[in-house]
Amino acid sequence: MKQFELGPARHPAPPTLEIVPVAEMTEATRAIRLTPDFDVETLETALDHLDLIIVTFPIFRDGRGFTQARALREYYGFAGEIRAEGHLIPDQAQFLRSCGVDCVLLGDDVDETPWLRALSLFPVTYQARLGLR
Fold first, then answer.
1. Can you give the CATH number for the domain in which 15 is found?
2. Is there a domain that residue 60 lies in?
3. Closest Cα partner for 31 from 42, 20, 39?
4. Within a domain: 130
């Protein structure tokens, strides 16, 4: 897998972090993977200890990851890295970025050109970006 950056890196997570499912999180955990049905409100007290949160998209039309990312940034002030993985398409790049996602995990054989093109199509957005970019 390779990471496709959606914008300038804010606080990139250290590359050696062990990523655990949110259900297995302990006080020492620094990187977690969320399931789409997980309520991010329950993470509020743990966010200061996390460097990386991965939101998953089991199918491209499942928008719960967008909601999770936006809530983490806007409502809970998460300042670490948010990474998206799963069934994502380049058409979603702008929206991922506006929701606070830092990068997308792509397969090693995926061409980044459509992702770059999607990010360059609309230089202006009508909705405010969370003030984080």
1. 3.20.20.70
2. yes
3. 20
4. no
Contact 115, 104 (CB under 8 A): yes
- Which amino acid does the sequence have at 122? F
Contact 106, 4 (CB under 8 A): yes
Number of domains in the chain: 1
Whole-model pTM: value is 0.89
pLDDT tens for each residue of 23-63: 999 999 999 999 999 999 999 999 999 999 999 999 988 99
Q: Where are the alpha helices (DSSP H) in the chain?
A: 64-70, 93-98, 113-121
Tokens of 66: 């967008």
Please answer whether residues 45 and 73 qualify as being in contact, where contact means their C-beta atoms are separated by less than 8 angstroms.
Answer: no
Residue-range definition of the domain harbouring residue 39: 2-121
